[in-house]
Amino acid sequence: MQKRDLFIGFKASRAVPISNVLTRDFLIQATLDGDVRRIEYQNSIVVDQRIMAVEGLVIERFDGRYAVDIVDARPSHDPAAEALTHLAFARRCHGIIELSAADVRSEPRCSAAREIWSHRGVRIHSDDRAEIRESLETSGPVALTELVASVMTRGDARAVIYALACEGEIEFDLHAGITDDLIVRSGLPGYAGSLRAYGA
Q: Which domains are assigned to the chain?
């Protein structure tokens, strides 16, 4: 059996097995999306007294719970698609969000999310964390370049900001990519602001 990688993020209720880059990219984007509160994973569901395999991703957003079907990440006519419908019903989801590879790989959001996520292992000194948090609490949402210029950090300020985003302490809308005027705002781990990457 092929060993699968695990995705671990602050919004995920558990480590999520991933077998392809497409699913990984979606999970990264959902983790950095301020509208997503929680990511859940379920690998099977009981239907008519039989166990059906399902790569079940469920996201909880401010407008409800949705099962996610990344259609290009599975074979056509995959039985798991039927199982996902049962999962959505069992988990009382508001619906199923179908995403294609083009949706997930939409630029510049995809590359921006990958760039941010590549900093998740950056060490954050406690005084750097406090410096950036205090700046945002005092000044409110601010452009990325302004925030970088206004804080004194032991580590590279931009790298620290990206790492904090991976923890949910700050957030930004990546639809337009990483630009100088990218607005940075405070966030709360697991319960970020009001941005939306995907529509139901």
A: 5-104 (3.40.1350.10), 119-186 (1.10.10)
